[in-house]
Amino acid sequence: MKPKMIIPMLVCKDAGAEVEFCVNALGAEELSRRTDGDGNVVHATLKIHGSLLMVHDESPHLASRAPDADGSSSVVNYLYGDEVDSIMARAVEWGARIILPAEDAFWGDRVGRIVDPAGHVWNIASRINDE
To answer: What secondary structure does DSSP assign to the chain, as a single string?
Structure first.
């Protein structure tokens, strides 16, 4: 079998809040959501700029845990598109913290880094110079 794609899975303490953040701050579209008997989100699938993203609550039967909210995650999600500054501003409005302010990088991108309220780290980037 040849793999067809990679779909990141964000593990959270509150997956419902992460879905809300991704939809409102990052422009995600919620494709599906499964909840438990208490209404907690146990699985959601989102689409951001044509890419899929899964969001889950921590689960006792899996070793995966939500990251600390200090920005020290070993994984960085790279959201590549347009409007870096407005996306970062919306993210802050929805509870994200800026780790690196957006700036024009020497390789031709405008890029900044945030940590979302769940502790997941995101680079927000856009191509500004193709020379």
So the answer is: --------EEEES-HHHHHHHHHHHH--EEEEEEE-TTS-EEEEEEEETTEEEEEEE--TTS---PPPTTS--S-EEEEESS-HHHHHHHHHHTT-EEEEEEEE-TTSEEEEEEE-TTS-EEEEEEE----
Q: Amino acid letter at 62?
A: L
Stretch 80-98: mean pLDDT? 95
- Looking at residue 3, its pLDDT comes to 85
Q: Is this prediction's pTM over 0.85?
A: yes
Instruction: Please report how the helices 84-93 and 15-26 are oriented relative to each other, as an axis angle in degrees rounded to 10.
Output: 140
- Domains of the chain with CATH codes: 9-58+70-127 (3.10.180.10)
109 and 128 in contact (C-beta within 8 Å)?
yes
Identity of the amino acid at 15: A
Q: In 3D, which of 87, 97, 91, 8 has the Cα closest to residue 55?
A: 8
Beta-bridged to residue 30, according to DSSP, are 46
The neighbour count for residue 47, using CB atoms within 10 Å, is 14
